[in-house]
């Protein structure tokens, strides 16, 4: 059947993930930041998987995105309170999660991010796969990832499904090696995960044709031919914010202008193209 | 047999409709009790089968639209035919199911098999007569309500005025007139102008059973909004807002996900409504917004103080066995990893609104009696359900050694889930859908 989601290959990745979640559930001695990182990684992995589906489930994606937001907010609060007084800052946060772990754990919480990392290294070797792979994602990466994930809901991307299905093959082999995300690769994955909702509007908007002005429909068809080096940057005004609410086509950068300017550009390009053709054919 | 995706009794309970993942609707009819078959009371046999929705391919967006039936809702019967609404992700259809048990015989110009007769063979005129024939049940689509939903439709609900109905998707609710297919009114729109701010999703919606201007919709945040259509054309502003304050001691990473409401149902008397989230069922009084009046934990068993004796009043000590409930809470990460945490369970009321029922994992379904606080756990499986045998209540325990008829939490099968249940409007007959099997249970009358 056309349009069905890609099926992930069963690989070490899945075994690792299953091992992680059961470790999360069964182990009461996992420190809280580690658990949080585990959950975060799972969320991002899920979002990445959904990205590969042609039509991701909006409900689930929102739920996961909210969980990611929640964790991010907490991490931000912790890092904000860090310079002032660490222990009281973290203790209430862990207290609110008291249902998850025994009270003794909160005493073990390290007092800083750096110490968290060193504490991770102090874990028993049985949890090596976890601690080796769980590195702290910076707050900026997180917020940019979440906002880009949801911002893409608003975009009507004029891309066919294969574009979204372009394998993040680079990412997949990573998982068997390290079950988490490295810091630099986090940026990649998070930004890659931004496309998780990328096809939402194109898949869901029944008002696709009604909302667009007629010119916009032909915008990309015409200008794609003229997307050449001859386009003069000064001729193109920046994309107006009002267009964002009308679900504009996300096309080549040269096309992000109003239709009137576009026609002028087309005409300019057309004459230049003729000129080139004359030169080529004439000689 | 395909996976059953919805189950619904009609207003009298004589008909039971099921929809499945393949877009088919199967309607069962209750057998009439006759002298020759006194035990046939409560039996349902297949009445009609038809293909309601076909898979569609949206060429514009290069997407396939699933034919799975998300919801079926019956219309009240007004003539000899039956009408129901069935919906998939994008399109709602009104179907007419009618019986034909007579056919005309004795045409002048046609033979019995339909061939035209030679004119010279027609030597006399006769009046065609109606002769009985084998009952034939026909289903024909009468209306198609399409192209009104950008997102996936999760609920439909017929209004008490019997002229309108509402349909809800993830972000919008539309109001339709049953006669008009090319126009619908949008009454709720929670899509933010900036999609970055999207945090809320509509999970279920229902119209009040008596007040045709009132409806409720639930969200993934565990809140319910009651709206009055008389107040404004666009009901983005709610009239009542139902939310239970979160218990800070039970907070976890997954608190938000498990508080997402999967089903909301008004009681028959219109005074209460019931919501189902991942771990509990809550009954709300429409007059009280700050917390539910009753909460039932799906995974908590009450331990009776004395063995149950038939027909003796049951004294149930309020000693609850929270271990199983806590066990499931501790399993949340695994359930999140295998996506089980996103399962949407439904719930239903019995006719007098005295008992509520909901499904769970391992093909268990639970009933809660509101007055006595007695709960029963039953299993819908071939092994435990011989026809006419009495179901034994099941119990889940946490310890290794288990008593007879008990099952340990470790052996729960999370792939066997009962998401859809329905209760006969006036009798104690329940329909339970376990993946691709439909079970019908009735109260044993001696």
UniProtKB/TrEMBL annotation, chain A:
InterPro entries for the chain: E2F-SERTA_domain_protein, SERTA_dom
Question: Which GO terms of the cellular component aspect does the record hold?
Answer: nucleus
Tell me the ranges covered by the SERTA domain, including all copies. 32-79
User: Which superkingdom, per the lineage?
Assistant: Eukaryota
Q: Which PANTHER family match?
A: CELL DIVISION CYCLE ASSOCIATED PROTEIN 4/SERTA DOMAIN-CONTAINING PROTEIN 2, SERTA DOMAIN-CONTAINING PROTEIN
- Under what name is this protein listed? SRTD2 protein
Organism from which the protein derives: Mohoua ochrocephala
From TrEMBL, chain B:
Q: Which PANTHER family match?
A: PROTEIN PHOSPHATASE PP2A REGULATORY SUBUNIT B (PTHR11871)
State the name under which the record lists this protein: Serine/threonine-protein phosphatase 2A 55 kDa regulatory subunit B
Species of origin: Mohoua ochrocephala
Query: What's a single GO MF annotation on this record?
Result: protein phosphatase regulator activity
Can you tell me which family this protein belongs to? Belongs to the phosphatase 2A regulatory subunit B family.
Keyword Repeat among record annotations: yes
> Mind telling me which Gene3D superfamilies this protein's record contains?
YVTN repeat-like/Quinoprotein amine dehydrogenase
Q: Name one GO cellular component term.
A: protein phosphatase type 2A complex
Instruction: Reply yes or no: does the keyword Glycosyltransferase apply.
Output: no
Q: Which PROSITE patterns does the entry mention?
A: PR55_1 (PS01024), PR55_2 (PS01025)
């Amino acid at each position: 059947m056309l349009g069905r989601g890609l099926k992930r290959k069963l690989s070490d990745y899945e075994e690792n993930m299953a091992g992680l979640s059961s470790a999360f559930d069964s182990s009461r001695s996992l420190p809280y930041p580690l658990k949080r990182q585990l959950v975060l990684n799972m969320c991002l992995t899920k979002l990445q998987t959904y990205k590969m589906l042609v039509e991701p489930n909006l409900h689930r994606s929102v739920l996961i995105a909210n969980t990611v937001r929640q964790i991010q907010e907490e991490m931000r609060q912790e890092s904000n309170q860090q310079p002032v007084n660490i222990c009281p800052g973290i203790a209430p946060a862990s207290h609110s999660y008291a249902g998850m772990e025994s009270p003794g754990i909160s005493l073990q919480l390290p007092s800083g991010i750096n110490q968290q990392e060193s504490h991770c290294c102090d874990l028993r070797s049985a949890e090596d796969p976890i601690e080796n792979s769980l590195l702290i994602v910076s707050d900026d990466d997180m917020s940019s990832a979440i906002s880009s994930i949801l911002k893409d809901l608003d975009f009507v991307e004029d891309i066919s499904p294969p574009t979204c299905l372009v394998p993040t093959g680079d990412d997949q082999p990573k998982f068997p090696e390290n079950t988490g995300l490295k810091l630099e690769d986090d940026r990649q994955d998070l930004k890659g995960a931004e496309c998780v909702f990328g096809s939402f509007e194109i898949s869901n908007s029944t008002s696709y044709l009604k909302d667009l002005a007629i010119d916009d429909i032909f915008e990309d068809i015409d200008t794609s031919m003229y997307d050449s080096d001859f386009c003069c940057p000064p001729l193109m005004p920046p994309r107006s914010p009002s267009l964002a609410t009308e679900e504009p086509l996300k096309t080549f950068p040269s096309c992000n202008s109003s239709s009137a300017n576009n026609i002028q550009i087309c005409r300019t390009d057309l004459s230049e193209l003729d000129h080139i053709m004359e030169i080529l054919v004439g000689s | 047999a395909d996976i059953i995706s919805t189950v619904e009794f009609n207003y009298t309970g004589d008909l039971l409709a099921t929809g499945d993942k393949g877009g088919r609707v199967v309607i069962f009819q209750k057998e009439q009790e006759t002298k020759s078959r006194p035990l046939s009371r409560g039996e349902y046999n297949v009445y009609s089968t038809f293909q309601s929705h076909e898979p569609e391919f949206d060429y514009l967006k290069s997407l396939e639209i699933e034919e799975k039936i998300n919801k079926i809702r019956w219309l009240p019967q007004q003539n000899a035919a039956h009408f129901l609404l069935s919906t998939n992700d994008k399109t709602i259809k009104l179907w007419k199911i009618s019986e034909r048990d007579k056919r005309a015989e004795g045409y002048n110009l046609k033979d019995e098999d339909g061939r035209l007769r030679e004119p010279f063979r027609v030597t006399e005129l006769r009046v065609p007569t109606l002769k009985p024939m084998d009952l034939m049940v026909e289903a024909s689509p009468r209306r198609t309500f399409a192209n009104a939903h950008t997102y996936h439709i999760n609920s439909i609900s017929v209004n008490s005025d019997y002229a309108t109905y509402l349909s809800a998707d993830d972000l919008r609710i539309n109001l339709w007139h049953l006669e008009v297919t090319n126009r619908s009114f949008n009454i709720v729109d929670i899509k933010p102008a900036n999609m970055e701010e999207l945090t809320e999703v509509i999970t279920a919606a229902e119209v009040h059973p008596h007040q045709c201007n009132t409806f409720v919709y639930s969200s993934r945040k565990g809140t319910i909004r009651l709206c009055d259509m008389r107040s404004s054309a666009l009901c983005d502003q709610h009239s009542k807002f139902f939310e239970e304050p979160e218990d800070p001691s039970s907070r976890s990473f997954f608190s938000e996900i498990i508080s997402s409401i999967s089903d909301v149902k008004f009681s028959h008397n219109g005074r209460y409504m019931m919501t189902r989230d991942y771990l509990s069922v809550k009954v709300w009084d429409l007059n009280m917004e700050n917390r539910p009046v009753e909460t039932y934990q799906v995974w908590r068993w009450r331990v009776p103080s004395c063995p149950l004796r038939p027909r003796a009043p049951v004294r149930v000590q309020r000693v609850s066995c929270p271990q199983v409930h806590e066990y499931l809470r501790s399993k949340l990460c695994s359930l999140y990893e295998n996506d089980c945490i996103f399962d949407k369970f439904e719930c239903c009321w019995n006719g007098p609104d005295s008992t509520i029922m909901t499904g769970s994992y391992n093909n268990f379904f639970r009933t809660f009696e509101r007055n006595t606080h007695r709960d029963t756990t039953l299993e819908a499986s071939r092994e435990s359900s011989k026809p006419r045998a009495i179901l034994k209540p099941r119990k889940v325990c946490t310890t290794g050694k288990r008593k007879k008829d008990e099952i340990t939490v470790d052996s729960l099968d999370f792939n066997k889930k009962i998401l859809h249940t329905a209760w006969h409007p006036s009798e104690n007959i329940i329909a339970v859908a376990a993946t691709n099997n439909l079970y019908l249970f009735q109260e044993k009358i001696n």
